[in-house]
Write a structure and sequence with these properties.
heterodimer, A: seven-stranded mixed beta sheet, 0% helix, B: mainly beta, five-stranded mixed beta sheet, globular
Chain lengths: 114, 110
């Protein structure tokens, strides 16, 4: 158990819909990272927040947005869903705001878009 | 960050040492070598990291060549539970994100 909690574990929805994935970092960790893993793309970095502020951005689509709240939990919002958005979405957390240092990953949220 | 090259797949017998190579010939002086693994659709798990010295922890050993252009992750007594995709990542101090490549799919055979 990494200490990072992601909900929901599984989600099935239809094209065009909007979903929200939630992540609670380990106690004391200030950074949250979001990754997408689809079959043909591997693990893709989406975005990082540190203590409520966006710190780094990867290949995140404009239809996707994220935020980190004062209690440090984070949400990833995916809208106008397409079939290709079906993937595992991982959240990770770390103490500091840099990519170096150990990242602790949650078990992921599996999104299926039909 | 420096690019890494890993073999796409490897096999190892249970109980033997698994040696996973990683080439990072363009690594620069302030870049670390990190290893993570991902067991079948679970979240990736940190294994070990190093800068230039060899490192060992309860999970594995990391051997970095003197010129730092390559490294080897060693799982000393592989078990079936070590079957996973292993990622070698080079990242500079201060970098904001960890970028995963394709990794090596290690299969431990009974």
């Amino acid at each position: 158990d990494s200490g990072v909690t992601q909900t929901p574990k599984h989600l099935i929805t239809a094209t065009g819909q909007r979903v929200t994935l939630r992540c609670s970092p380990r106690s004391g960790d200030l950074s949250v990272y979001w990754y997408q893993q689809s079959l043909d793309q591997g693990l893709q970095f989406l975005i990082q927040y540190y203590n409520g502020e966006e710190r780094a951005k990867g290949n995140i689509l404009e239809r996707f947005s994220a935020q980190q709240f004062p209690d440090l939990h984070s949400e990833l919002n995916l809208s106008s869903l397409e079939l290709g958005d079906s993937a595992l979405y991982f959240c990770a957390s770390s103490v500091g705001g840099q990519g170096t240092g150990e990242l602790f990953f949650g078990e992921g949220s599996r999104l299926t878009v039909l | 960050d420096a690019k890494t090259t890993q073999p796409p797949s490897m096999d190892c017998a249970e109980g033997r040492a698994a040696n996973l190579p990683c080439n990072h010939s363009t690594i620069s002086g302030n870049e670390y070598v990190y290893w993570y693994r991902q067991i079948h659709s679970q979240g990736p798990q940190y294994i070990i990291h190093g800068l230039k010295n060899n490192e060992t922890n309860e999970m594995a050993s990391l051997i970095i060549t003197e010129d730092r252009k390559s490294s080897t992750l060693i799982l000393p007594h592989a078990t079936l539970r070590d079957t996973a995709v292993y990622y070698c990542i080079v990242i500079s101090q201060g970098a904001q994100k960890l970028v995963f490549g394709q990794g090596t799919r290690l299969t431990i055979n009974p």
